[in-house]
Write a structure and sequence with these properties.
By secondary structure, this protein is an all-alpha fold. The longest helix is centred in the middle third of the chain and has 25 residues. 66% of the residues lie in helices and 0% in strands. It has two domains: 188 residues, no CATH class; 42 residues, no CATH class. Helix 1 packs across helix 2, helix 1 runs parallel beside helix 4 and helix 6 runs antiparallel to helix 7.
Length: 247
């Protein structure tokens, strides 16, 4: 499980370093973002469990953020437009940490629901710290697409299979891959959960959907760019608004 945990650290560290490059943050700031993204969620989990964080007990956890910060720094201009890789590495870390965080919580003897909660916290905690430090709306809160739900599903599957004794290393990889796939599809296809009705449109739904399907026809109108984690279509529709403002 250590290797899988390190993969999650690496993935989130890369997302933090690439975000730092897009924000024109220097190499030390990039290292800080990478460390916070890669280690933040696990530290929160371990503190709640009342133990010394794994990243402080095992110095090997510090290697991925340092290596990725140097790598992104050497990439230079090529890292400035790496928006899709940021989302992809973030999704990979989300899937891995949802699995490893839940297994650590289950191994510590926590109840089913508590283990899922800690697994989700492990998955989203580092990314939240990264986004706040980089002055981005955290992906958990920006309402653009599914983010925390894939983590909940992954943590729930992990806890369930652990509880019935069917959890193996290959199962952890499958669950992490499933969370990654769902998250990327949600980002690309703009899968969303219901939000407050204000600012949403219902036009056209009555003519194309049966009565029972109309609840899910609400779509947020095109607006301003909601950050690097906003879906691709939302960002494209926001561009004309920006040009109009410049004129």
């Amino acid at each position: 499980m250590l290797s899988l945990d390190l993969l999650g650290v690496l993935a989130f560290a890369v997302s933090g370093n690439l975000l730092a490059a897009r924000k024109n943050i220097d190499i030390m700031g990039s290292l800080v973002l990478g460390l916070c993204a890669g280690l933040g969620g696990g530290m929160m989990r371990d503190v709640i469990l009342g133990r010394v964080p794994n990243s402080l007990q095992e110095p090997i956890y510090l290697i991925p953020p340092v290596v990725t910060a140097l790598t992104v720094y050497l990439l230079g201009q090529r890292a400035l437009h790496a928006r899709v890789p940021i989302v992809a590495f973030d999704a990979l870390g989300l899937g891995v940490f949802a699995t490893t965080g839940t297994t650590i919580a289950m191994d510590a003897g926590l109840p089913f629901a508590s283990a899922i909660l800690l697994g989700v916290l492990t998955a989203v905690g580092g990314g939240m710290i990264r986004d706040v430090l980089a002055n981005e709306i955290p992906a958990v809160f920006n309402g653009s697409d599914l983010y925390i739900i894939p983590a909940i599903v992954g943590a729930g599957l992990t806890a369930l299979l652990w509880g019935i004794g069917w959890f193996e290393s290959w199962v952890a990889l499958v669950i992490a891959a499933l969370v990654f796939l769902v998250r990327m599809l949600a980002w690309h296809l703009e899968w969303r959960v219901p939000s407050p009705m204000r600012g949403w449109s219902y036009s056209g739904a009555r003519s194309v959907l049966p009565r029972r399907g109309r609840l899910f026809a609400f779509r947020r109108p095109s607006g301003r760019d909601r950050g690097v984690f906003a879906p691709r279509r939302s960002r494209k529709t926001a561009e004309p608004d920006k040009r109009d403002g410049e004129d």
